Amino acid sequence: MTAAEPTEPVVHIVDDDDDLRQSLRFLLASVGIQALDYPDAPAFLAEFDPAEPAVVIVDVRMPGMSGFQLQEELAGRGYPAPVIFCSAHGDIPMSVRALNNGAVDFLEKPYEPQRILEIVQRQQGLARERFVADAERRDVLRRLGELTQREREVLRLVIEGMASQAVARRLGTSVKTIDVHRARIKAKTGADSLAALMRDVLTHRIEV
Where are the domains of the chain? Predict the structure, then answer.
């Protein structure tokens, strides 16, 4: 593994074939792509940085945890990296399963060098977008975590398009109280306006 500071999303290669991992790492390095490799899924899970933008290339069949099981684990953690599957024994049902579960591509071994380079470089662009969006979503969630339950109720109704008067009637309180809640929501979340906060919530499809 190389310790150089990446200028692009790193590529994680998870495969129990030592020779393949080494040759793929060298191929990627030849065009300036930083790649880290792991002999199995547990080794990857123990070492990878979930906050670092990345692309994952994973073999389907590995001892212990399979590539599909690793994909499920990463999805459960909300890890946004694009996942590329590879297999020396791939078939249509296997590739359909991988893609239906969120993989971005499915490759057969042995790799065609130029094709995998093009795929990886394209997915690095997707990785940048996904990790930026994920960081923004986590920031919105963190800010919403500062709100009380009643403030969340008020925000939810405002997002539904209700004015302060209607919110007050729905919650059985005064307009003045709702306006106080609105001001506190804005202050606690550091939002420039409630409209901006609403946009962030809707953009990232967050349940308030």
Answer: 10-137, 145-203
